[in-house]
Amino acid sequence: MEFSLQGKPHIELNKLLKLLSIAESGGAANQMISDGHILRNSKIETRKRCKLIIGDVIAIQDQDVTILITT
Fold this sequence. Notes:
- The chain has helices at about 15-20, 25-35; strands at about 1-5, 10, 40, 45, 50, 55-60, 65-70.
- It has a 5-stranded mixed sheet, with no helix packed on it. The protein has a two-stranded antiparallel ribbon with strand order 2-5.
- About 25% of the residues lie in helices and about 30% in strands.
- It has about 70 residues and is of the alpha+beta class.
- The longest helix is centred in the middle third of the chain and has 9 residues, at about 25-35.
């Protein structure tokens, strides 16, 4: 799956999860991140509001979801 920043410089991780309906709410997104279920560029990401930029690859452990951040 690809996600376009549509000219914006970045998107916060928890907002992306909520926007793509991977998490039901912001709280659920934050919990997924805190629990270490999210990989950013193949490394566990625990910062809820980390800024994702073009080229970042997000994967959700135990799910077949991979998101490439594009322009």
